[in-house]
Amino acid sequence: MSNATTPEQLPDDAVLLDVREQDEWDAGHAPTAVHIPLGDLPARLGELPEADEAHPLPIVCRSGGRSGRAVAWLAQQGFDVVNVEGGMKQWAAAGKPLTSEAGDAQVI
């Protein structure tokens, strides 16, 4: 099974794990995403949404680097995860829904 997917392959209401920092999350994120910054991930594993081999958890960051590291680490821990190629930049470019804390969603 591939360790990657694209925003276009995911439904608009897909539950994502967003590993960006707080300011990036506040600026704009997928409405159904769960936010756990990459540095907090080891301490917050109990908060991960459920996933299985048939429905792995998509992980996203700004452009794919941090989420790639998260996917590698979580896979070693036995989690079924995939990296969202292109990150939130590609999510937005694909016309996927965005929301923000301020109401003017953008990706930073």
TrEMBL record:
Specify the Rhodanese domain's residue ranges.
10-100
The family database entries (SUPFAM superfamilies) matched by this protein are listed as: Rhodanese/Cell cycle control phosphatase
Q: Where are the transmembrane segments?
A: none
Stored PROSITE patterns: RHODANESE_3
Q: Which InterPro entries match?
A: GlpE_sulfurtransferase, Rhodanese-like_dom, Rhodanese-like_dom_sf
Query: Would you tell me the protein name for this molecule?
Result: Rhodanese-like domain-containing protein
Q: Which organism is it from?
A: Flexivirga aerilata
